[in-house]
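Here's what a typical entry looks like (Tetratricopeptide repeat protein):
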Amino acid sequence: MLVVNSQAVIAQDKKNELQAKEKNTVITSIKTHLQESYIDADLAKKMVIELDKNSKNYDKITDPDVFSKTLTEDLQRISKDLHLKVRFEPEHILQERRVVSEEMKIEAGKKMAMQMAEINYGFTEAKILEGNIGYLNLRMFADIKYAEETATATMNFLSNTNAIIIDLRTNGGGVPDMMQLLSSYFFDETPVLLSDFYERKTNTKTQLYSLVKVAGKRSTSKPIYILTSKKTFSAAEAFAYTLKHLGKATVVGEVTGGGANRTKRINLNDEFTISMPYIQAIHPVTKTNWEGKGVHPDIKTNEKTALVNAYVDAINKTAKSNKNILLNKIGYAFLKEKSVDNAIIVFEENARLFPDNANTWDSLGEAYFINRDKENALKSYKKALALDPNSESAKAMIQKLEIIK
């Protein structure tokens, strides 16, 4: 039995081994599609040259997954295009080529709708933060065919806030129509050009405008913040880049992934596909896009502190009175959540804005103490005591800190 099984494994491995003829077919097909369809003709030529230059390396590869990964790395090294990928996926191609009845299509659509509903179409969390600041954690840009009702309900829920923070730090993209719908809530009824799209193969240009009609209330004049990270990609980047350069949003966080252009999946043969960027997005203001560069934030910070930085900025721009009390309350809310670093950022801002308030320094001292930062805690409590010599809490904490080694 062991001999028979071993022979079966060896036979299967040989079956999966790539032959020179198939590799040549795949590479030739890639070069043809690059020259015909890739968004940048000059880069397409450079990638073709790179493929030819590396032909001897490909000769040594027999594993199909390694082959597709190597091709992808070579193409991306020249193009810096993270959308451009070669994949080994024979099962997907086979499934795609099967004849599907209308009934099966309907059932597949229902299944997709159910799966999307289970994750609330990417609308993970919507809430009103202290100070009447709206917060939306959006994990994907779902097709409005499924998600329009949820998107509309969410935007209406946030419509009475003083500012809105949209968290795209874990959003890897999706479809343009959701980007169009959400963007439309930040403009009035007059259509605004959001993006041009140019297809090199057909030499045609299309345009995407904000919608004339949206259900419910628009938020056209309040501050909008978009949180980003290195993981923010594709349609999520389009949303951030579009609103930033149309003067509608402040981007806070990290430089994003850098995938700007629309892609299509092309079958190279019966086993390999390529994800081919074929339509170039062009912003009406910058006349370019974020491909390979990412969306650069207006307030640059790390992924972890993006929310608190946006939150503090929103409070500074919208709070009409009692800002000192409000920031203190927000700081303690972060402490309660054990987000000590965020609390410190809030208390430090409060101390910067209200340096003559003893309670502000006392709160900052408490946050430093919880963070085991004896030096800064002591400085803060001494500042609080200097401003209010009768503060018993500051006196007690100074005594406590001075005996800590």
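The two ends are 71 Å apart (CA to CA).

More examples are in the samples folder.
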